[in-house]
Each structure stands twice: as C-alpha cells, then as structure tokens.
Amino acid sequence: MQFGADYAFDEQGLRNFKKKLLNHLQSVLIIYPEANVESNERGLLLKPSKPHVAQLPPALPRLKNSPVPETLLLPLSIYQEGYEGPLLQTSTHEQARKAAPGWDVYELERQWREWIAKKGVPRKPDAAFVAFCRKKAVKENF
Prior knowledge:
two-stranded antiparallel ribbon, 2 strands
C-alpha cells in the first residue's frame, strides 16, 4: 500500500494529505522522539536518526536437539508465501496491543495460529485474535 494514495491529486487533496500526515507524525514522535524530522513549507525532511529499537544481541549457536517438541512447531507452510490462513488487519494488531499491554503481539499471533490450527479458523478472525490476546494477558498476569 502507498500512504496517501486515497487523496485527490489537487490542491485540496494535498492540503488534506499534509494535515493528516502531520497529525500522524506527532503521534509517531511521541513514541519515537529520537526521530530527526523537520517540516517546512517545501515538505517533510527525514534525516538520519538513532534507531527506535535496540540492537539484537549476537546470535546464539543452534542446538542440535531443540528443547521445543516438534509438535509445538508450526508447519513451514505458515511462513511461506501463499499461506492461506486468515490475514489480520493492521488495526487488529493495534487492538491486540491495547488488550495485552506489554506483550509481543506477534508472538501472541504465533500462539493463536497454533491454537486455530487445532480448533479451526474462527468466523471473525480479527475479533477472535484480540479476544485471545485479552484472555492470555489476564490469565498469565494473575
């Protein structure tokens, strides 16, 4: 997807785009204050900034005998292109973050996908994933 593709390519559309972009930029700067961004009459200038995420530690050597049982590993097809599982909307991940604050929603999604592989795909996958996150957070925080 392209940010701003849904705005009309005229003076009013450009004004609306700029207004929305600057509003979203303020939200980003709350979370990422190190972002080196300047807005002026000519546009937006993005300068090199300190990364928002910490550098990964050095990779650990792979174990010959993994402590994770094979039955808990997801099939490789989930990670390959063409996986036919339910695709979650971006807004669903945002809702999941609110439902399970402090949790890694992508790890929760992996666990949820393991669960639905056993139970079946729900009619409303987005709502089911958010509910899964909420229940997991409540259950394991107590």
